[in-house]
Specification:
The protein has 369 residues and is an alpha/beta fold. Helix content is 46%, strand content 14%. InterPro entries: Epimerase_deHydtase (IPR001509), NAD(P)-bd_dom_sf (IPR036291), NAD(P)_epim/dehydratase (IPR051225).
Length: 369
C-alpha cells in the first residue's frame, strides 16, 4: 500500500567494495575537466537526469519510485554493487556503480548525462562501529569521490546527514541547526566530514551541494543496522510473534520521521531555488518519541503485545544523540512541513508490514505446501 502511495505522489549488509581506483589528475587534465564543466549545457527544458548511489538500501528504491513519478522512469538511474531483485529491474534503469571507483563514476555521469546525484551509499551507525575501516572507506572516501565528481561535472548533489552527526556535548532538547557537534561514532564523524567538505566545495568552487540531517527514518523494510531501527523491528516482531525485545531503555527519546515525509523533504529541498537556501545543511524532522510511547500506540493494534527491555551498546549511541530536533530553519527557508505524526505513522506501518511482509510470506508458504 505504501509503495502505491509513493508512486502517486538499511541498510543491507554492505559487501566489501571493489578496490579504489581514483585517477591521478594532472594540472592539464584538471584544466580540461574544468573547461568541459564551464561549457556544460544546463538541463533547462528537460527533466534532470538523476543517479542514485547506494540505491538498494532503506531509502534508495522508494526514492527512485518517487522521483520517477515526477521525472519519468528513464530519467532516474538506481545503482549499487549488490545484485538487484527482478522487481527492481522491472521498475526502471539499474546499473552497477562502485563509489570507490572514481573513473567508473565519471563514465556513468558522461554516458548517462547525469545532472543530479543523490548519494545514499553509507554504513549505518551500529554496523559502522563493527567495521570502522570499511566505514571510513565507504562513508569518507566515497564522499570524496562523489563531491569531486559533482564539482567536475557541475552536478547538483545531495548527501544525507543524520542526528548521529551530533554528540554528547551538543544540546539535546532542542538541537539547533548550528551548534557544537563532535560525534563519537565513525558514522557521525563521517557525516560531519561530509557536511563540512560539501560546504567547503560550495564556498570554494560554487558546488550546488545540498544536505539534510535526517532523524530516525521509519519504513516497512526490514532494519538495516541503525540505532533507531528498533522503531522498525518492533512492527515485524509484534505482528509476527506478539512480542519484542528492545535494545534501548523505555524512556530513550529520539527524533523520527516516516519515510514518505523523509523522501518528500528530499524532493522539495532538491527542487528549491538556490536563492531560498540560506545554508547548505538543514535539520528536518517530524516528531520525537520514546520506545514506551511507540509501543503504547502499537498496542492499540496488537493488544497483547509483550515488550521486554535489554539495553546494549546502541544505548550509549542513543544517549549522545538529540532528543528533539529543531528544524525551524528548514520550515522558514524552503517551507518544509511534515504530514505524519505518531498515530499516523503507526497506522501506516501496521498496514504496510502486514500487507507486504506478513501476508506475502504466508502466501508463499501456502504455495510451497
Amino acid at each position: 500500500m505504501f509503495r502505491k502511495c509513493l508512486a502517486s505522489l538499511a541498510l543491507a549488509p554492505f559487501p566489501s567494495p571493489i578496490s579504489i581506483s581514483i585517477p591521478r589528475i594532472t594540472p592539464v587534465a584538471s584544466q580540461l575537466v574544468q573547461r568541459r564543466s564551464v561549457h556544460q549545457v544546463p538541463h533547462e527544458g528537460r527533466p534532470p537526469k538523476i543517479l542514485i548511489t547506494g540505491g538498494l538500501g532503506q531509502l534508495g528504491i522508494e526514492c527512485a519510485k518517487l522521483l520517477r513519478a515526477h521525472y519519468g522512469s528513464e530519467n532516474v538511474i538506481l545503482s549499487d554493487i549488490i545484485k538487484p531483485s527482478q522487481s527492481v529491474l522491472e521498475n526502471g534503469p539499474y546499473i552497477f556503480a562502485d563509489i570507490l571507483d572514481f573513473k567508473g563514476l565519471q563514465k556513468i555521469v558522461v554516458n548517462h548525462r547525469i545532472d543530479w546525484l543523490i548519494h545514499f551509499s553509507a554504513l549505518l551507525s551500529a554496523v559502522g562501529e563493527q567495521n570502522v575501516p570499511l566505514a571510513v572507506r565507504v562513508n569518507i572516501e566515497g564522499v570524496h569521490n562523489v563531491i569531486e565528481l559533482a564539482k567536475q561535472y557541475r552536478l547538483r548533489i545531495f548527501v544525507p546527514s543524520t542526528i548521529g552527526a551530533f554528540g554528547p556535548d551538543s544540546p539535546r532538547n532542542p538541537t539547533p541547526n548550528v551548534t557544537i557537534q563532535r560525534p563519537r561514532t565513525i558514522y557521525g564523524v563521517s557525516k560531519v566530514h561530509a557536511e563540512l567538505i560539501g560546504e567547503y566545495y560550495y564556498h570554494k568552487f560554487g558546488l550546488d551541494f545540498r544536505c539534510l540531517r535526517f532523524p530516525g527514518v521509519i519504513s516497512s523494510d526490514p532494519p538495516g543496522g541503525g540505532t533507531t531501527d528498533y522503531a522498525v523491528a518492533v512492527f515485524h516482531d509484534a505482528l509476527r510473534h506478539g512480542k519484542y525485545n528492545c535494545y534501548l531503555r523505555p524512556d530513550t527519546r529520539l527524533p523520527m520521521m516516516y519515510i514518505e515525509d523523509c523522501l518528500r523533504a528530499l524532493l522539495e529541498f532538491m527542487r528549491a531555488p538556490n536563492e531560498q537556501l540560506k545554508r547548505r545543511v538543514y535539520n528536518v524532522t517530524a516528531m520525537s518519541f520514546t520506545p514506551e510511547e511507540l509501543f503504547a500506540q502499537l498496542g492499540k493494534h496488537v493488544p497483547n503485545l509483550h515488550v521486554t527491555y535489554q539495553p546494549d551498546s546502541r544505548q550509549l549511541i542513543a544517549d549522545s544523540w538529540p532528543e528533539v530536533f529543531d528544524d525551524s530553519d528548514a520550515r522558514k527557508d524552503w517551507h518544509w512541513q511534515h504530514k505524519y505524526d505518531l498515530a499516523n505513522l503507526v497506522d501506516f506501518m501496521v498496514k504496510d508490514v502486514q500487507e507486504n511482509y506478513i501476508n506475502g510470506q504466508l502466501q508463499q508458504q501456502k504455495l510451497q505446501i
